[in-house]
């Protein structure tokens, strides 16, 4: 029940931009089946051997695709996303700083079409040794049985790197993004991991801001049988300040790391005190 | 401040807010305004009406709410219109006063604009700087995510989650971070130089740089640090932890300039905390 695998067909929107083009190359190197790219006005060009079209519709008149990865500037994400969703593609939004009302509209439409949205402001999703949609560094991942879902980018790489060094491979790693409103959330990711026969244990990396972790903690108790291990970043973050990610902000009394850690512990989910502990916890489990 | 005196019949609460967990706009109304709505909502949930609204909330939707809340549908509709037009995360009137002439008056209000939408609202861009410290403002001007904290170990990293985790681990081993600074992905040599300059403004007792290079090139980061040191000198202890893209080249650059670097996040944290403590004890 993998979200992506070696057969997933992908288009890249914003392929001719600096980021789009650079990461298309890296995704191809990883083995991702990129069937086409889209940049309005640049149809007919080629980027790293991938044919560029003017629109998603044009791509689909000649190709089949399942997912689109968006490297489009924030101001244009909404129109690019709606275009992909209109054409029945699931989407991964890498772009940061997408206006929140645009995100709400994208998610509203995706829900009506029963399509997946991952991100915005996310590093993407990877099934090691099969397919990568996004910007995660190719070499740190290893195929295995641990599912990882995270709000962070480089912190995720840090943890994955430690896992791989200790010969603990990953089934699928999903970066859901650092913004305050995101598409695929922790609960949806856990549901997918619970159904995935490849995943035997799950690592969840949360941070301050919002109450997604608190709601997820309750959900785990009732619905997830596989072991889940958690790390929460931002124990020392001050109130009221946005810590890099748009969604990483403690407002008043809510969204603190303490509240999230308490919620997980209350629901019998183990929370690592320090980063390195995560690997020890998983080792003991597997 | 001098203001017109009001003859108050009732004080209400009305707001539209983006609920991040519901991934929706939520309207909140209470007949008991003028006080802390969060507290009221917790203690007496029946006194606060909270409802998800559809994104294409229109006059008809406003009329339905108006029947429930028993206040003007135009007010409700116009408030949402304001929110949508100005890309607000919150528009709140508290208290919304009904005076003795049955007139509705917004006695106090709060609006939070979505930072990500500022590119389409030029009129607001300056106001983001209120509530920021001097260094935070300079950081913003240079495209750096920076937050002032009250410790003495300057922290620079790539990626908000990683930097937050670094602040946490510094405290875990007995130190205190002077700041949060996320250089973002793919930072250039110049950006790194600027980052060092920025964190030194508060005269910290040490610097800890923690980089996991994915799209970020470790050698660019190293070069930035070295350039700053060559041009300005760095007198305080500094520990660099750098792994990932071009780490070998980066280590060479650092070593040639007598800058200490380690691979392990834990070991480097312990090291900087120790160095700063020793400097203190001299």
Summary keywords:
heterodimer, A: alpha/beta, seven-stranded mixed beta sheet, B: 282 residues, alpha/beta, 9 helices, 38% helix
Please describe what this structure looks like.
The complex is a heterodimer of chains A (286) and B (282). By secondary structure, chain A is of the alpha/beta class. Chain A contains nine helices and 14 strands. In chain A, α5 links the parallel β10 and β11. Chain A starts with 8 loop residues before the first strand and ends with a helix. By secondary structure, chain B is of the alpha/beta class. Chain B has nine helices and twelve strands. Chain B is elongated and about 80 Å long. The model of chain B has no long low-confidence stretch (mean pLDDT 93).
Mean pLDDT of chain B: 93
Distance N terminus to C terminus of chain A? 21 Å
Radius of gyration of chain A: 18 Å
Principal-axis shape of chain B? elongated
- Kindly report the spatial arrangement of strands forming the biggest sheet of chain A: 3-4-2-1-5-6-7
């Amino acid at each position: 029940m993998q979200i992506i695998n070696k057969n997933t067909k992908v288009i890249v929107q914003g392929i001719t931009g600096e980021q789009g083009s650079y990461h298309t190359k890296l995704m191809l190197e990883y083995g991702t089946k990129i069937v086409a790219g889209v940049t309005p006005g640049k149809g007919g060009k080629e980027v790293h051997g991938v044919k560029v079209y003017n629109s998603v519709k044009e791509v689909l008149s000649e190709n089949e695709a399942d997912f689109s990865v968006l490297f489009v500037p924030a101001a244009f994400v909404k129109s690019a996303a709606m275009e992909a969703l209109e054409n029945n593609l699931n989407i991964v939004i890498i772009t940061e700083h997408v206006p929140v009302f645009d995100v709400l509209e994208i998610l509203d439409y995706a829900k009506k079409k029963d399509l997946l949205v991952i991100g915005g402001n996310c590093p993407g999703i990877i099934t090691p040794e099969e397919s990568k949609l996004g910007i995660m560094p190719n070499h740190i991942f290893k195929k295995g049985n641990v599912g990882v879902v995270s709000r962070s980018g480089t912190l995720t790489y840090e943890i994955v790197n430690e896992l791989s060094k200790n010969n603990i491979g990953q089934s699928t790693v999903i970066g859901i993004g650092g913004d305050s409103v995101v598409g695929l959330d922790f609960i949806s990711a856990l549901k997918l991991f619970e159904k995935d026969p490849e995943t035997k244990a799950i690592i969840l990396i949360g941070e301050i801001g919002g109450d997604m972790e608190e709601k997820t903690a309750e959900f785990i108790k009732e619905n997830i049988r596989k072991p889940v291990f958690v790390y929460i970043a931002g124990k020392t973050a001050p109130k009221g300040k946005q810590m890099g990610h748009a969604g990483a902000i403690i407002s008043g009394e809510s969204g603190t790391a303490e509240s999230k850690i308490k919620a997980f512990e209350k629901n019998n989910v183990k929370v690592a005190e320090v980063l390195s502990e995560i690997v020890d916890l998983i080792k003991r489990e597997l | 401040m001098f203001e017109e005196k009001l003859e108050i019949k009732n004080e209400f609460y009305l707001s539209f807010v983006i609920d991040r967990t519901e991934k929706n706009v939520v309207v909140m109304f209470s007949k008991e305004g003028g006080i802390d709505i969060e507290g009221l909502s917790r203690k007496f949930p029946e006194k606060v009406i909270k409802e998800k609204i559809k994104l294409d909330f229109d006059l008809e939707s406003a009329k339905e709410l108006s029947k429930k809340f028993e206040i003007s549908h135009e007010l409700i509709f116009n408030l949402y219109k304001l929110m949508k037009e100005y890309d607000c995360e919150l528009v709140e009137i508290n208290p919304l006063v009904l005076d003795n002439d049955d007139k509705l008056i917004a006695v106090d209000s709060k609006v939070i604009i979505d930072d990500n939408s500022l590119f389409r609202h030029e009129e607001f861009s300056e106001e983001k700087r209120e509530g920021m410290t001097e260094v935070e403002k300079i950081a913003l001007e240079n495209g750096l995510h920076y937050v002032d904290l009250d410790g003495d170990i300057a922290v620079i990293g790539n990626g908000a989650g990683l930097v937050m985790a670094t602040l946490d681990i510094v405290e875990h081993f007995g130190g205190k971070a002077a700041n949060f600074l996320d250089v973002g992905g793919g930072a250039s040599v110049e950006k790194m130089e600027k980052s060092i300059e920025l964190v030194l403004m508060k005269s910290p007792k040490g610097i800890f740089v923690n980089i996991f290079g994915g799209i970020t090139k470790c050698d660019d980061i190293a070069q930035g640090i070295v350039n700053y040191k060559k041009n300005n000198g760095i007198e305080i202890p500094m520990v660099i932890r750098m792994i990932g893209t071009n780490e070998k080249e980066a280590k060479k650059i650092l070593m040639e300039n007598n800058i200490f670097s380690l691979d392990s996040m834990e070991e480097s944290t312990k090291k900087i905390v120790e160095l700063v403590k020793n400097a203190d004890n001299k």
